């Protein structure tokens, strides 16, 4: 529920704050004072779009912040899904800069608007003109029925089956698309794969071949230089190794006189041994290098084939060519076994479709039973709140399989005797339509686990005993939910656990909307004005006290 709400620099509001009661809150005020403007600001907290037109002062940013107590609403999983820090006191803040940039925060963590909306959908249920339109949507009517009937387990089973059905259908359609491809395309892919197979790519080592080609093409130069090097190291006339042997012979007799002399002797011997090893390696390499035009041409041919294939397929690595070959082999193998694959995919599709329709049928049967009860319960409530001749029908009709089931739901309504119920989408908005929405809200409130329910002038076209009945029902709702109602009726104002008054302050150069909580005497005075006008009579004051239960 909302613990506190603060609004700064929004529309006619320069600065406003309130701490609503946990139960029933009534907001009243003169027309145009800014009551519904507050709803627009609250809408920002649940992810609604906005622009700089909402700024009271165009040079300053707008800030709307709500502090919510979410300790009993099991939202930990939602927070974890969106990587948000969970706290039982959740702070949602929305900022709009003068440049029009909007930012949203949950517990000081920046979030995108879809995340804010996902959270807001679990915290606030706002009735407004927008929702009057929403009720006319078939999906919303279906969700009303499911909420009333507590269909979540059945719907979850159906949606699991629907997901499996979609996956099977996608796989089946994919194989059919493969089958539909032209023979020419298949022939071309077979040709490409054969070409890659003939290249023996698995036995081809590009870097090694390129290095081997360089050696063979420069074989003569390599042999000449290796031979010259060996002569310098261990030749008959000049022998570096022999010189080191003689140097070692000079150092050996004196090596025992000091550590330094011993180390010198060892280093000379190490150099002699290393150069002797180098000389042997040079001899091996010199012997192994032979100029062979035939071998050179074979290597060039293999490399030319590789380069051509890489250029043809716009690839740079041998591994990419191997991957292309393997992909083609798999695809062609699939084509060769297409008949069996189609049968397998068809069987899986049939199985998932059967499971889908079985789950959908169970959901449909439950919906059909619940539709009768929902219609009866709505009628009871609308009769209670002044639509004595109101009739409601809830029709469950067949629909193509979709994520919500095999059905579409149609709520039909008539407020007048002798007029058959018609689609809600054909019913004009008005007082009776508002009461229909109120009846639906009342029925499903406890089934939706919604912390806060907000009504914007749900009392349109209501007065007298009907108003008292609606207030009594809202008070009942407020036992399990925080309820905030914007109203112009004294009965509503008197029924609230807390009464807030919105008014325009004209004391400065520019009118601003403000709000204050009314206590006992102020409540009596305000409700008396709602009854008798700006100059209420003693009778109006007496009626106000009677409504409030004051003696």
Describe the structure.
The structure is a single chain. The strands form 3 sheets. Strands 2-1-4-5-6-7 form a 6-stranded antiparallel β-sheet, covered by helices on one side. Helix 16 (464-477) links the parallel strand 12 (452-456) and strand 13. Helix 6 (152-180) packs antiparallel against helix 14 and helix 14 (338-384) packs across helix 15 (431-444). The protein has 551 residues and is of the alpha/beta class. It contains 19 helices and 15 strands. The mean pLDDT is 87. It has a domain at 183-336.
In one word, what is the shape? elongated
Instruction: Give the fraction of residues assigned to helices.
Output: 55-70%
β-sheet strand percentage = 15-25%
Return the average pLDDT rounded to an integer.
87
Q: How would you sum up the major sheet? A: 6 strands, antiparallel
Number of helices: 19
- Stretches with pLDDT under 50, minimum 5 residues: none
Strand order of the largest sheet: 2-1-4-5-6-7
Radius of gyration: 43 Å
The chain-level structural class is alpha/beta
Distance between the termini: 33 Å
Count all strands and give the number: 15
């Amino acid at each position: 529920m909302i613990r506190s709400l603060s609004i700064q620099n929004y529309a006619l509001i320069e600065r406003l704050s309130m701490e609503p009661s946990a139960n029933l809150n009534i907001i009243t005020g003169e027309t145009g004072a800014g009551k519904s403007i507050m709803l627009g600001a609250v809408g920002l907290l649940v992810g609604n779009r906005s622009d700089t037109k909402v700024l009271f002062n165009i040079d300053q940013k707008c800030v709307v912040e709500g502090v919510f107590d979410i300790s009993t609403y099991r939202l930990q999983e939602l927070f974890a899904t969106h990587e948000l820090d969970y706290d039982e006191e959740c702070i949602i803040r929305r900022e709009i800069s003068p440049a029009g940039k909007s930012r949203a925060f949950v517990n000081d963590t920046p979030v995108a608007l879809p995340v804010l909306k996902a959270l807001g959908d679990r915290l606030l249920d706002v009735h407004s003109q927008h929702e009057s339109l929403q009720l006319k949507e078939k999906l919303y009517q279906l969700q009303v029925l499911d909420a009333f009937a507590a269909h979540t387990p059945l719907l979850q089973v159906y949606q699991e089956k629907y997901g499996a059905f979609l996956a099977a259908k996608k796989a089946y359609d994919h194989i059919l698309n493969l089958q539909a491809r032209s023979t020419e395309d298949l022939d071309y892919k077979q040709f490409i794969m054969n070409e890659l197979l003939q290249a023996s790519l698995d036995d081809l080592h590009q870097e090694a071949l390129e290095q081997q080609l360089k050696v063979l093409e420069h074989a003569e130069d390599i042999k000449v230089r290796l031979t010259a090097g060996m002569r310098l190291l261990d030749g008959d006339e000049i022998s570096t190794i022999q010189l080191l042997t003689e140097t070692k012979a000079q150092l050996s007799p004196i090596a025992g006189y000091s550590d330094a002399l011993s180390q010198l002797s060892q280093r000379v011997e190490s150099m002699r041994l290393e150069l002797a090893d180098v000389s042997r390696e040079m001899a091996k390499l010199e012997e192994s290098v032979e100029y062979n035009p035939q071998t050179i041409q074979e290597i060039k041919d293999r490399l030319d084939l590789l380069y051509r294939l890489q250029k043809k397929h716009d690839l740079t690595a041998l591994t990419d060519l191997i991957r292309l070959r393997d992909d083609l082999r798999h695809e062609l193998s699939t084509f060769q076994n297409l008949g069996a694959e189609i049968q397998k995919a068809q069987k899986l599709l049939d199985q998932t479709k059967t499971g889908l329709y079985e789950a959908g049928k169970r959901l449909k049967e439950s919906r059909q039973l619940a539709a009768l009860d929902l219609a009866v319960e709505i009628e009871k409530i609308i009769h209670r709140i002044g639509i004595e001749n109101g009739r409601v029908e809830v029709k469950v009709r067949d629909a193509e399989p979709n994520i919500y089931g095999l059905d579409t739901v149609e709520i039909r309504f008539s407020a007048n005797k002798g007029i058959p119920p018609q689609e809600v989408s054909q019913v004009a908005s008005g007082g009776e339509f508002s009461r229909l929405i109120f009846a639906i809200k009342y029925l499903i409130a406890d089934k939706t686990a919604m912390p806060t329910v907000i009504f914007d002038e749900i009392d349109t076209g209501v007065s007298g005993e009907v108003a008292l009945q609606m207030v009594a029902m809202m008070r009942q709702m407020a036992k399990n939910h925080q309820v905030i109602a914007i109203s112009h009726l004294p009965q509503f104002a008197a029924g609230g656990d807390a009464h807030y008054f919105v008014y325009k302050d004209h004391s400065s150069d520019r009118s601003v909307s403000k709000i204050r909580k009314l206590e006992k005497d102020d409540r009596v005075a305000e409700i008396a004005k709602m009854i008798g006008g700006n100059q209420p009579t003693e009778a109006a004051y007496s009626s106000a006290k009677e409504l409030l239960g004051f003696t």
